[in-house]
Amino acid sequence: MLLIRGAMLPDFETGTTTQADVLIRDGRFAAIAPHLEADCPIVEASGLLMLPGMADLHTHMVQSLTQGPLDDLNITQWLTRMLQAQWSLTEDEWYYGVLLGCLRSIRYGVTAINEMTYYPHIDAVVQAYQDAGLRVTFGIGATDIAENDQIRVTPVDECLRQAEELYHKWHGRGLLRTAAVPQGRPACTPELMRALKQFARERGLLYHTHLAEGKAETERIRAWTGRGEAEELAHLGVLDESTILAHSIWLTQEEITLLAQSHAVVAHCPSTNMKLSDGAPPIAELLASGARVGFGCDGEASSANRDLLREARLGSYLQKVRTLDPTVLPAGQCYAMLTEQGMRALGYRDVGRIAEGWQADFSLVRTETLCTVNRRRILTNLLYAGSGEQIDSVYVQGRPLLRNGQFVHHDLEHILQRCEEITARIERTLA
What we know:
Elements: E1 2-11, E2 16-25, E3 28-33, E4 42-44, E5 48-52, E6 54-59, H1 75-87, H2 91-107, E7 110-117, H3 122-132, E8 135-140, H4 156-170, E9 176-180, H5 190-203, E10 206-211, H6 215-225, H7 229-236, E11 243-247, H8 253-262, E12 265-268, H9 270-275, H10 283-288, E13 292-295, H11 300-303, H12 308-323, H13 331-338, H14 340-345, E14 362-366, H15 378-384, E15 391-396, E16 399-403, E17 406-407, H16 412-430
Parallel strand pairs: 1-4, 6-7, 7-8, 8-9, 9-10, 10-11, 11-12, 12-13
Antiparallel strand pairs: 1-2, 2-3, 5-14, 14-15, 15-16, 16-17
Helix pairs in contact: 2-3, 2-16, 4-5, 12-13
């Protein structure tokens, strides 16, 4: 058991907080009341905001090693150089790259990620997930169309074999879940898109892919098929409530309606969309149509960022300036998308809310900073003026991963030193 004493519990609908004690037993919130007594360890949380764990709906963790050397490139140059760096990594380097990305996510209060990874050194990748200790849904980014000379194409049968291998080795093992993960229609034949969806449906898995990220790629699909990318995925029969679509920028109004009707989930990655000049997705219109939307940090090679609170702030601002409407994507809606709605998109029905009986994934956030001095407005100030750097402690199933700003199970200095050695080698490779 663990007792969190005197934390500020958020109400996202009203934007207010209430002070309470929270008792955790067997990895779940067992009791919440103004005052509780229990014979167990106590965390004094007076003045700390208790946030539910956040869900990152679209990530590429190994790209933590290419934060920096791919800045200020157009998408064509960026993709070629990113893959050049990625394919140069050894097994040990893959491990440290993924571990670094996971630890950065935890540092910013993320307790669940949805990862598009790659097959080389997959055992090391999964070991990094397990060592990090957060919830991971993951799959191999499958492709059978070469978009450039760095793309490694894989036949449909081999893509299915890899997905089957992951499923049997790791699905449901601890905090791991596997998924079917085609890269996206510009990089995948209709046969691969359909085959992986059938694989996912037969096993009850998520289906995670890119959608309409680049204008040129979306126009290419329309030239090939006579349909927009979302229309094409609907035609292929792969859109449903278990489908997560990263980016979703170049959509027609008809496609926005189609996504809402399908109950698929859009993963909004504003930093990447802005930094790579992909475009501004119609998130306000998607939400108004009833579509499901969450946030993703994408890979640091493009977003340079793992602070999911910052992603939500940028996502909100981007929609306000797109629509010239300051009321769209308000703070309360952003928090719901980051937490319970994001977790539900990943298939969790009892994660993402601080409520009795729910799994105890949460963070404790410092509020005594210059950015968030007005505690009457702590939720809006944290989102619009604060930072994930204010997160003090992070727990998954009631177990601490980060405590008082320090990782519980990892020697961060050693990890950062090893990653610096790897990034220096990558810089030489790209020179």
